[in-house]
Design brief:
This protein has seven helices and nine strands. By secondary structure, it is of the alpha+beta class. It has one domain. The strands form four sheets. It has a three-stranded antiparallel beta sheet. A two-stranded antiparallel sheet has the order 1-2. Strand 1 and strand 2 form a beta hairpin. Helix 3 crosses helix 6. The radius of gyration is 16 Å and the shape is globular.
Length: 226
């Protein structure tokens, strides 16, 4: 798919991508239903993790409130523009993973190293029109910009290498972390940290079908019901 003049990834491992309403309203699917891979390994965040903290990377911290606000902003937006629903848990962990890579890229090259895609301002405005605060919309679009940037192999390598050098924790209520990836519910069930922390778990080897997504409670879906 394209957004403006730049090619953008079609969803991918993060479960999120940049999407414009004009594309969505003409029936173009821009949010893939591929799940984040479930990776083995012990959780780097213990049971005594601060329930207010979703993830940390070096000195940077992502709060649960911030993550939930970004998840809500993205899900409300894609529902508004008619993108087919995926499990909300996939989007939530995908945004967490993108935040980790954003922290790594900021560590490596500074906060202004990434150029937003041409549609960034439009997407932020439409997120606000769907109910998001301006700050939350800006933060969410920043994570989508990271998703776009990681499609460049050079950027991806820098991000992965830098992230590997940082001390990373992910709250078990958000997901499990190993080798640069965040997966929904390390044991198949994640403990809800808030009303928007939802525990549906799918493997990339067994992605959810549209019927499985439709069977989820509305609060556990992200996107249009069809």
């Amino acid at each position: 798919m394209t957004c403006g003049t730049r090619d953008l990834p079609e969803g991918g491992r993060y479960g999120v991508s940049v999407v414009t309403s004009s594309r969505a309203r003409t029936g173009t699917r821009v949010l893939a239903a591929a799940a984040v891979a479930l990776l083995g390994g012990a959780l780097l965040a213990g049971c005594d993790a601060d329930p207010r903290t979703a993830a940390t990377a070096g000195d940077a911290t992502l709060t649960v409130d911030r993550l939930d606000a970004a998840t809500a902003a993205y899900c409300d937006y894609v529902a508004e523009v008619g993108v087919e629903a995926v499990p909300r848990a996939i989007v939530r962990t995908g945004l967490t993973e993108l935040w980790l890579y954003d922290a790594a890229l900021t560590e490596a090259a500074g906060p202004d190293a990434l150029d937003p895609p041409p549609a960034a301002d439009e997407i932020a405005r439409e997120m606000q029109a769907a109910g998001a605060d301006a700050d939350v919309a800006s933060f969410t679009v920043r994570l989508l910009t990271v998703s776009n940037a990681l499609s460049d192999p050079t950027v991806g390598q820098v991000a992965s290498t830098t992230l590997g050098d940082l001390d990373v924790t992910v709250n078990p209520a958000v997901g499990s972390y190993a080798d640069g990836a965040v997966a929904t519910g390390g044991d198949g069930v994640s403990v809800a940290a808030s009303d928007t922390a939802l525990g549906a778990t799918f493997s990339i080897d067994d992605p959810p079908t549209p019927e499985e997504v439709a069977a989820l409670p509305a609060a556990q879906r992200c996107g249009s019901a069809g």
